[in-house]
Design brief:
about 130 residues; 1 helix
Length: about 130
């Protein structure tokens, strides 16, 4: 059975850093899976934070995190990380990773920034930025 598990969340002060990891099991990310990071705060819609294509050569970031967050993947370890720097209170949310099946015949982006395009989701990890 497939599984996506996020880790690395926690409580951090404003201006601090956290590194989130997404570990896949039961399927091989390097085969054809792009990975997106999403977040959702209470009372707000789930939003895309960043995504990375199967080979890591296409990357997208939300404007709100551009320059502060960095996404990377290690296909040998079947993991995708999100390095979060200079964190702000408004970054507080549950963070999710999710997979998207890349298809050469698809008209979609190799890592779309749309919640509805992703099929497999992790359980989420809480990130709280507060003094």
């Amino acid at each position: 059975q497939w599984q996506l598990v996020e880790s690395g969340g926690g409580l951090v002060q404003p201006g601090g850093s956290l590194r989130l990891s997404c570990t896949a099991s039961g399927f091989t990310l390097k085969d054809r899976y792009a990975i997106g990071w999403f977040r959702q705060a209470p009372g707000k819609e789930r939003e895309a934070v960043s995504c990375i294509s199967t080979n890591g050569r296409t990357i997208n970031y939300a404007d709100s995190v551009q320059g502060r967050f960095t996404i990377s993947r290690d296909n040998a370890k079947n993991t995708v990380d999100l390095q979060m720097n200079r964190l702000k209170p408004e970054d507080t949310a549950v963070y999710y990773c999710a997979s998207f099946v890349a298809n050469i015949l698809s008209t979609k982006s190799l890592c779309p920034m749309r919640v509805s395009d992703y099929g497999r989701w992790g359980q989420g990890t809480q990130v709280t930025v507060s003094s």
